[in-house]
Structure formats: structure tokens, C-alpha cells
Design brief:
The chain has 261 residues and is of the alpha+beta class. The protein has 6 helices and 16 strands. A hairpin with a 7-residue loop joins strand 7 and strand 8. The chain is globular, with a radius of gyration of 19 Å. About 10% of the residues have low confidence.
């Protein structure tokens, strides 16, 4: 694509079809009825930020490599941004945004996902259960991209794992807490972290939802790695691979409000 800023315009036809089929609007490239599913996209190769778009949308990311199709399917897969729309997620997170009108009020983004993981339509917009102290230093563009929600958060130890000397062939391993037994890796993040030359000793992860793997009768948790600036505004780093609910429950967690751009 010649101009990366045209990414949403290039998919306008597809998004219009999604909007009509799902009976919802499209918010920065994601259908609002299935916003949670759309937030859980993963890149299986090194990705870098696309400026001008929110970090929580697939539109805010692009491959860190230039490549010329056609590619073998085995090579093409590593460039795919993957979303599992069929996943039966359970989540009690309500997502809010700032209305883009003269009122600038906070409004709920209706969703079809509930705590039981079954489709359900929210017919009324509940008011935020807490007072959202939105940073007043946000630019107009950031206010338009802002996603607000309350969830649980944990600071988890991490370490870099490389298969060779190339930083591109690496992953970030999430480590269990020493208090819960021997230190082992409980999950991972694919590829290097954009904008971080050195992997920190810990990263913040936030709970997004869970699902049950029925064949093994095990519950898995989906968590997102984020980084937060001095204003209290966060950006998505990447989704971690699903981890066992028991491993997440062993982490010290606390409730927090996330202002994600």
C-alpha cells in the first residue's frame, strides 16, 4: 500500500458488509457487536505500529518486513493478523468511548458477548459504574481513538527467548511467580516488542476474557500486554498466547481502569 493511512479506506467495502451482516457500526476497523473478539487479534511475526490508528485495532499495526507476493502458504502465514471470530468468549468487561459530538460524553459500546460466553444484545446503555478521570492532555485524535474499560491487571516477570542471533526470531516468555513454585514459562508473546530495544524484567498484562477448552475441560485466560505513559494512557503491545486460568489466578492482580489508544 503506497499510503499506510489508507488502510481503512482500502477495506471500506469489506467493513460495510460486516456492518450490515452484524447489524452494528464499525469502530476503527472493528465491528462493535464483536469488539472483544476483534481486540484479541494476534500477529505471528514481528509487527510495528502504523501511525494514525489505535494500537488496539488491527489497522494500527503492519508487518515489520517488506515482502513481495506471491509467497508460499507456509511463509504467508507469518504475516497474517489472526482473529478467531468463533471463540466462545466469556467476559464481563464493558467498553466505553467518547462520543464524537458537542457533548463529548462517554457512551457504552454495545456488545454481543456476556459472562456466559453466549450472544446477547445490550438494549440499554448502562452508565459507567465509576467516574472515569479521562486525561485532559489527550489530543483530539487520541480522544477519538480512546477505549475505556475496567478489568484486572497483573505485573508478570518476562524474559527474552531467541532461537538464533536474529532478534526477529524471538519471543517473550511470561514466567510464573516464584511464590507459586518453580519458575516456569506460562505463556509467550510472539516477536520483538515494537519501540522497545530492551525487554524489561516485567510487563503489565490485563484480563480480556476466558473460554473453556471442552476436550480437556480446562479454562484458559486471554490477556493483553500493555505499556502505560506518564499520563496514565496505555497502548497495546500484543496478545499473549492463552494461559491456564490457574496460572493467571496465581498472579497478584488488581482492578484498574484502562485508557487505551
Amino acid at each position: 500500500m503506497t499510503n499506510p493511512g489508507d488502510i481503512l479506506n482500502a477495506f471500506q467495502g469489506v467493513m460495510t458488509s460486516y456492518s450490515e451482516a452484524m447489524e452494528c457500526d464499525i469502530f476503527h476497523g472493528l465491528p462493535t457487536n464483536f469488539l472483544l473478539h476483534g481486540l484479541l487479534f494476534r500477529s505471528y511475526h514481528a509487527a510495528e505500529r502504523r501511525k494514525g490508528f489505535p494500537s488496539w485495532s488491527w489497522a494500527g499495526w503492519q508487518s515489520a518486513h517488506n515482502y513481495s507476493p506471491p509467497l508460499p502458504l507456509s511463509d504467508m502465514f507469518q504475516y497474517i493478523v489472526y482473529v478467531d471470530w468463533q471463540l466462545k468468549l466469556a467476559s464481563d468487561i464493558n467498553f466505553y468511548r467518547i462520543r464524537q459530538d458537542d457533548t463529548s460524553k462517554i457512551e457504552l459500546i454495545p456488545s454481543l458477548v456476556n459472562q456466559a460466553g453466549h450472544p446477547t444484545r445490550l438494549k440499554h446503555s448502562p452508565q459507567p459504574s465509576i467516574w472515569y478521570n479521562i486525561p485532559d492532555t489527550l489530543s483530539p485524535a487520541e480522544r477519538a481513538q480512546l477505549l475505556i474499560f475496567t478489568t484486572t491487571s497483573a505485573i508478570i516477570p518476562v524474559e527474552l527467548h531467541q532461537w538464533d542471533d536474529s532478534p526477529e526470531n524471538s519471543s517473550i516468555l511470561l514466567l510464573s511467580s516464584p511464590a507459586s513454585g518453580p519458575v516456569t514459562d506460562i505463556s509467550s508473546i510472539s516477536g520483538p516488542i515494537d519501540g522497545m530495544d530492551i525487554v524489561p524484567e516485567t510487563l503489565e498484562f490485563i484480563f480480556m476474557g476466558d473460554y473453556k477448552e471442552y476436550e480437556r475441560d480446562q479454562k484458559h485466560v486471554l490477556i493483553m500486554a500493555i505499556k502505560t505513559d506518564d499520563r496514565g494512557v496505555s497502548e497495546r503491545i500484543n496478545m499473549a498466547s492463552p494461559l491456564l486460568a490457574s496460572d493467571w489466578e496465581a498472579c497478584p492482580t488488581s482492578e484498574r481502569t484502562v485508557y487505551l489508544i
